[in-house]
Structure formats: structure tokens, C-alpha cells
Amino acid sequence: MTVFCPFAAGYFLSFFFRNVNAIISKDLAGEFALTPADLGFLTSMYLLAFAAFQLPLGVLLDRYGPRRVVAALLCSAAAGALVFGLAHDLGTLSLGRALIGLGVSAGLMGAIKAFSLWFPLSRLATLNGFYLAVGGLGSLSATAPAEAVVEGLGWRGMFFILSALSLAVAVLVFFVVPEKPLPGHGQTLRMQIAGFGRIFSTLAFWRIGLPAVIGQGAYIALQGLWLGPWLYDVAGQPRHAVANHLLVTALGYIAGSVFFGVVSDRLAQAGISRMTVYKLGLSVSLAMLALIAAGVHAGLAGLLAVYSFTGISAALAYALLTPLFPPEMTGRVSTATNVLMFALSFGMQWAIGAALKLYPIVDGRYSPAGYAAAFAVIAAMQLAAILWLLPMRPAQPRL
Q1: 365 DSSP 8-state letter
Q2: CB neighbours of 93 closer than 8 A, spacing ≥ 6?
Q3: Low-confidence ranges of the chain (pLDDT < 50)
Q4: Residue 390: CB atoms within 10 Å
Q5: What does the pLDDT read at residue 194?
Q6: Contact 273/208 with Cβ under 8 angstroms?
């Protein structure tokens, strides 16, 4: 618990930060006269900073360990939330959002590094599943509960509270998480950086990682921003219903995190590979995204729940990739995946806004045709990655 809980508190906050703009998007657009492209750019600054720091983060985690790195970065998140809450223009909002993204960039990778140090690899998918569920709780809190806080304190007041909480969690991680000797001690910085070449030149890394990168990248772009406006503009939902539907997707994410983490480990013991579970989950998630792209409204809550429930199967990529490399490389393996995922999320989140700008805006609502075109392109990308993955058999660990 002294390893799991402090990191989980930071991961909870990272998901809250990531997704809360879906609730306050209309407030920000109205107060700062933001265009769709402005809103997409602002929200994706979290993802840009997050992605830009992933490769240095992998080296830092393998070199200094997760406790020190995560605690230091959470102080940046605290500063970013304060800057965001005090902002009076788009530039300052973007700076605050970027500092937040930097500050929570080790939320998952730091924990995976810690779990690989303290627990056997056979338990990694289960631990990751429960940990991701905590992130789902953060995402859930960024829906209807966040709406209630904003109504009472305003969006600025909420960010002041988030700043204080981020600093408190930084202190918790630093003083509660125990230290453990790191494998690969004595490697030079040059040797550690060169390890990325080994990772990116491994074909199995791309075949396993790319479907996760695109699938989770799409989910992050939608849940973090564009699903909220889509519910307003295409599904015709009022504000409270938008919050409730986002709550449903967060619940699906939580349930899927636990399910795919625990069940994949149990099925692996029974002879059914994690790779099989991974492929199945991604395929169902793609089918749900295709329906969303087509503008399907029937059974909307169920559609969104299944999309988020199966979408988190992408996280099995971490458990599938980790055994393929030596233990001293676990931080870099995870962050190599993450840099691709969040760079793509940034691109998707911005590109959706840019696509919507090409279509007429009527009564403050973005065009359904714009959403359909943008979401269809993302679905096609995910389909191509899954088709490349499907013939692949479980790879043998490379030590």
C-alpha cells in the first residue's frame, strides 16, 4: 500500500486534469472568445508537454527511481494549476495547461517502474488494471462532480483547489514511498539514452504498441475534450446530460481497467494469452468508435460505456512489452510507448478542432459533418493498426 496508494493519488489528479476541460469548454470558449481550433490547441497543450517529456522521463525513472521523479514533477502540476486559475488570456491558459501536463507526465510510468521493482511481472497486468481504475475515478470526478464544483466555486476556484492537492500529493509520494535499489546501476547516461534505439528498432514494439497508441490516443482526445462538445452539438444533449454521459464513459473505463487487468492475468494462467485478450478488446473498441463517427444516437449511454470499457484494453500493451526487454529498461519501454501515444493525442485533439473550423458553426454548435469526418479518419487509422496486429502471435521474452 505504501507503494501503490501515493502514486495512485497523483494518477487520480492526472486524469482529472486531463478530462476536466470537457466540462468547462463552453465556459472557457465564452469567457476568452476561443475558436474551436483555439480550444483544441489549449486543451492539447497538456498532451504536448506530457508527450515531449516522455523520453527524458524514461531515463530519469531508470536512473533516479520513481519516488524522486514523480514528487518533483507534481510540484510543476501545482504551479500549472495556479497559473491556469489566474489566467486572463489564451497564452497564460496554455502555459498553465502545459505545466500541468509536464507535472503529471510520470503518473502512470512512475507507477509501472515502481511495480516492476517491487512486484513480480506475473502480477503486472493486475496491478496496472487496478491502478488504471484509480485514474478512471479521476476521469469520473471530472464529469458530474466537477460540474457541481464549478457551479459552486467557478472554474478558477476549482483550479486553486487542484493546485493545493497536487502539492499535497507531491509531499505524500516523497515521504511515504520507500526506496529500492535500481537494476542497471552504473550505466552511463549515454548508454541509457542509446537504449531507446534498441526499443524503437524492435519490430514487436511497433506491432504491439501502435494499436494501443492510436486507440488510447483517440480515447484521450475524445474524453479529454471533444466528446463533450459532440454530445452537445451532434447528440443534442443539454449540459447536465453531457456531464452524465461523460460520467458513464468514466465508469466504463474504471470497470474495463479492472476487468482487463485481472482477467488477462487469470486467463494467462489458464493458457489464453494476453495477446488474444488485447486483440479482442481493441477490435470491439474500434467498432464502437465507428458507430460514434457515424453519429449513432440510439442507446448512446451503452455505446459510450462499451467504447470506454473495451478501449482500456490498450493498456495491456505495457504488460506485453515489458517482458521483451531487460528490467533496467522498464521505464524507457513504457515512456517510449507513451511519447507516441500522447504526441498522437495532441495531434488528434488539435486536428479535430481544426477540422471543425472548416465547417459552418450554427448557433454556437459545430457541424455534425465535421465531427463525422474527423472521427472517421481516426477510426481508419485504428483499423489499419489492428489489422497489422491480428496475425501476430505472442512474442517470446527477449532478455
Answers
A1: B
A2: 28, 32, 42, 84, 87
A3: 397-399
A4: 12
A5: 82
A6: no
Residues counted in the chain: 399
User: Cell for 316?
Assistant: 495491456
Question: DSSP label at 362?
Answer: B
C-alpha–C-alpha distance, residues 379 and 39, integer Å: 22
* Per-residue pLDDT at 195: 83
pLDDT tens digits along 294-314: 988 889 999 999 999 999 899
Among 145, 177, 140, 166, smallest CA distance to 61 is for 177
Which helix (H) or strand (E) segment holds residue 247: the answer is helix 239-269
Alpha-helical runs (H) found in 294-329: 300-311, 316-321
Q: In the 8-state DSSP scheme, what is residue 396?
A: P
CB-based contact 287:313 (threshold 8 Å): no
Q: Which pLDDT value is given to residue 48?
A: 84
Q: Residues with Cβ < 8 Å from 231, sequence gap 6 or more?
A: 237, 241, 242, 245, 246
